Amino acid sequence: MGKKKFSNPRERFLESAEARTNSVLNAIRILGHCSNKSLYTYAPDEINKIFKTIEDELNQTKTKFRLEQSRKRRFKL
């Protein structure tokens, strides 16, 4: 099976963004299973480190989208 042909970049974005977002959300839900104290032992600093890393990566990704938008602006007097 070959790559899917998209009619335009918007269609490609919508399909890719939706699939990737659902994948991220599912991974977060699965990570939540580690909170079961009857199966896992963890320290608060370990949990803080996990969520700090996730938040940092999310912020970096948000910045990429913001930078892309700001590049399209043009100055005009």
Account of the 3D structure:
- There is one protein chain.
- With 77 residues, this protein is an all-alpha fold.
- It has 2 helices and no strands.
- It is flat and about 60 Å long.
- The mean pLDDT is 91.
**SSE pattern, N- to C-terminal:** HH
In terms of quaternary structure, the protein is: single chain
Unreliable stretches, pLDDT < 50, 5 or more residues?
none
Q: Which strand-content bin applies to the residues?
A: under 5%
Mean pLDDT: 91
Radius of gyration: 19 Å
Rough outline? flat
Count of helical stretches: 2
The beta-strand count equals 0
**Helicity level, as a percent range?**
55-70%
Give the helix/strand class: mainly alpha
Main sheet record: none
End-to-end separation: 52 Å
How would you summarize the topology of this molecule?
Blueprint: H1 9-32, H2 44-71
List keywords for this structure.
single chain; 77 residues; mainly alpha; 2 helices; 0% strand
At a glance:
The chain has 77 residues and is mainly alpha-helical. The chain has two helices and no strands.
